[in-house]
Amino acid sequence: MLEPDGRFVVAGDDLLHCDGATAPLTNIYPAENLAADWQDWRAGDGGLSGPEQMSSLIFETRSPAWVAEVGLLLAEGLETQAWFVDAADVVWPVGKVDSEQIALS
Fold first, then answer.
1. CB-based contacts of 38: which residues, under 8 Å, 6+ apart?
2. What is the 3-state secondary structure (H, E, C) of 6-52?
3. Which of 16, 88, 97, 105 could cross-link to 68 by cystine, CB 3.0-4.6 Å?
4. What is the rounded (10 degree) CA torsion for 84, 1, 51, 11?
5. pTM higher than 0.70, yes or no?
6. Residue 2, SS3?
7. What element of type H or E holds 67?
8. Rounded mean pLDDT for each run of 10 residues along the chain, 105 residues in total
9. DSSP states of 78-100 as a string?
C-alpha cells in the first residue's frame, strides 16, 4: 500500500526502502511471528487481535516525525486495524502516533 508513494522503493520481494533523498532513511520488512514469542501474551481491552491473526513488520528509521507521517498514510489506506509498537513497548494506533513521545531505539 505504501509502494505507490514515490518516496518508497521496492528493494526486494519483502522490503520497502527510502534512501534518504526524499524521505528519511527507512527499511520496512516482515518479521516472523513465532508461537513461543507470544505464549505469555494475554488480550487486554485495547482492541488488539490475537497474535495468530497478526502480521508483523519491522519499521527501521530514526525519525519520529516520519513514523507519524507513515502512520497517517497507513491509517488512510488500511481497512483493518494496525499499530506501531515502539522501543518502549508502547502500542500506538497507526493514525495516532505522537512524534514527540514515540520511543525509537
1. 51, 52
2. CCCEEEECCEEEECCCCCCCEEEEEECCCHHHHCCCCCCCCCCCCHH
3. 97
4. -90
5. yes
6. coil
7. helix 64-77
8. 91 92 94 78 64 82 96 90 89 93 94
9. -SS--EEE-TT--EEEGGG--TT
